[in-house]
Amino acid sequence: MGESFLFSKANDNWRAKRKACSHAFYKERLVSMIEVLKDKLADSCKSWLDQIQEQGHVNIDISQEFSNIFTRNIINIAFGEDVTNEKVEIWEKTDLEGINPMVLKTMPFGQAIRRVGDDTTTISLKLKVTNPLYRVIYGATGKSISFSSTERTLND
């Protein structure tokens, strides 16, 4: 989140990101987004209560649940309806190094969105943490530096 427009310094890059997103932050738009979020939270609570009634208990991985709620919320806002469970085909890496060929997989849209995000984060972290220069520069400056075009693409 360090490079997002919410947390970065007010510079030209920040102004460009803020301008690109400004249409989403009108009062009427925010009210609509909050209503969608409330619906998604209510759906999750109902699901948990149903599980409690059926099984007498429920185990909740709160980070996964909030990831699911967030994904469904964003999808609903972006597409006007919750298409989280619609099936899509995506090409997926079978290894982080990219040595093996990618495979075509069918999965729910929400899972595909999370998978792409997880893969991007994992690859970016792996590239950075394994680079000894990154650790030195980050430790000294607190700034995340991209050394390769792949890292810059992932950051963008």
Question: Can you tell me about this structure?
Answer:
With 156 residues, this protein is mostly helical. The protein folds into 2 domains: 1-83, no CATH class; 85-156, no CATH class. It is built from 6 helices and 2 strands; from the N terminus they run αααββααα. The chain starts with 11 loop residues before the first helix and ends with a helix. The model has no long low-confidence stretch (mean pLDDT 76).
Keyword list:
156 residues; single chain; mainly alpha; 8% strand; 6 helices; two-stranded antiparallel sheet; 61% helix
Give a quick precis of the structure.
By secondary structure, the chain is mostly helical. The chain has six helices and two strands, in the order H-H-H-E-E-H-H-H. Helices cover 61% and strands 8% of the residues.
Query: If you compute it from the alpha carbons, what radius of gyration comes out, rounded to the nearest whole angstrom?
Result: 19 Å
Q: What percentage of residues falls in helices of 4 or more residues?
A: 55-70%
Q: Would you report the number of β strands?
A: 2
- Class computed from helices, strands and strand pairing: mainly alpha
Order of helices and strands: HHHEEHHH
Q: Strand order, biggest sheet? A: 1-2
